[in-house]
Design brief:
2 helices; alpha+beta; 28% strand; elongated
Length: 83
């Protein structure tokens, strides 16, 4: 889902077991909202891992490796502007 006016970020996480995951965070990088938003995305991502990878612990720590801005294709911007 594209939210007009809000920046989108690809966030790379590294779990304690060394596995890397990527989530899409939409919003500003203000510390409070960003921390809460990325944490919720990480929890959802880990829940999916636990479904597909049996035997994982109930909780696992993670490290945010980096944020990368997501570029919106010019066609998407044109479609949103004309909608």
């Amino acid at each position: 889902m594209i939210v007009p006016g809000l920046p989108q970020w690809q966030v790379v996480l590294r779990w304690d077991d060394g596995v890397r995951s990527t989530v899409l965070y939409i919003g500003s990088l203000w510390i409070g909202p960003m921390s809460q938003g990325v944490h919720q995305l990480a929890l959802a991502c880990y829940t999916q891992r636990r479904i597909t990878e049996l035997g994982l612990p109930e909780q696992m720590s993670y490290l945010i490796l980096h944020f990368t801005p997501v570029q919106i294709a010019a066609e998407d911007v044109t479609l949103r502007a004309s909608a």
